[in-house]
Every structure is written in structure tokens, then in C-alpha cells.
Amino acid sequence: MKDLKILFVDDDPVTRKLMEKKLQIEEYETTIAVNGVEAVDFISKYRFDVVLTDLMMPGGVDGIGVLQATKEKSPQTDVVLITAYASIDNAVTAMRQGAFDYLQKPINFDELFLLLDKISNLKKLGKAAGDLREAMDVTECNAAQTIQDLEMSVSELNGKISEISHILSKKNVDAAKRVSIALDIISAT
Q1: Domain of 70: which CATH number?
Q2: Is the pLDDT of residue 186 over 90?
Q3: What are the backbone angles phi and psi of residue 153, rounded to the nearest 5°?
């Protein structure tokens, strides 16, 4: 099984069936929505890694509406718009709204699977970067604690050295007594 959970949204039953079959063959975990309203309902209940949605759909929620609902609920979910009416304006609008990319109908499945592999790799890199950041935070916290402990130890040792120096400099006290006191200071912990 592939590592992406995909929601596919299209009002055309033939396109839905074909996409479902192709995604199952590639072993993607796939949920199918028959329109934008159903897609928004799924998005509110479940987490998806990728939403593949038709741009033009009847029923009040089109592909841009699905994109907006997805980004509102789950900003880390990548949305790919699919359209038979590809234009620069549609692409720019989709990208400004947060779409990862867009594909033209009829869908070129080689292009789709390359895009899904790219999304998967980017998600893995993002997770690895997050794990690395977390490990660095733990290491930094441990290093800060170690430095603080060392500073405390150095401060205590400096205090003992100062005390020993003071004791040893007292010429009016017997030398053996001064050494004995200094040794007591050294052995005290």
C-alpha cells in the first residue's frame, strides 16, 4: 500500500470509476466523493494527504470550494485540481488559493503518478525535517542543562579554591593544621 490517503472528487461517474480503479491498482488508500458537497463532508471528518478534485462541478461547491474547505480544515493537505478547461487564469487562481498543482482532462496517469510520487517525497522530507528539528531541540535543551550544571560545578570549585587559598595563606596557623583544613575542604562534597 502506498503511503498517501487520497480523496478523489468528480461528478462524472465514468471518471470516478476509472480513477478509483487506477488508484487501487497503484495501491493508494482512496476515498471517492461524487460532488463537492460530499467532499467537504469527508474533509470535515477525515484526514487526507491529497485531494484530487475536478474544477467544474454542479451542486454549489466546485473545485475551488473544495480547495478552500481543504486548506481551512487541513492546511498540510495537498490539493490538485483537475480540469478540462485548463487556462493560465485557472492555474493562477488555483495556485493563489493554495493548490499544489493542476492537471488537464483527460488525465495522463503517468503524469498523475509522478505528481503523487513528488507529493509523497515532499511529505517524507517535511517529516524528516520535523523529526530533525525535534531532535535538535532536545539536544539543545540537554546541552543547555549540561552547561548550566558545569557552570554550577565550576562555581562551587572556584569557591573551594578560594577558601583553600585563604586557609593556606594564614601564616599564623600551623602548616600541618592548614593542610588538614584544606584537605577537609577538598573532600567535602
Answers
A1: 3.40.50.2300
A2: no
A3: -65, -45
Which residues span the domain enclosing 28?
5-107
Average pLDDT over residues 147-160: 92
* 98 and 151 inside one domain: no
Residue pLDDT, tens place only, 39-51: 999 999 999 999 9
| Residue 183 burial class via C-beta count within 10 angstroms: exposed 0-12, middle 13-18, buried 19 and up | exposed
Angle at alpha carbon of residue 62, lines to 106 and 110, rounded to 5°: 25
d(CA 66, CA 81): 9
Considering the entire predicted model, what is its pTM? 0.72
Same domain, 11 and 86: yes
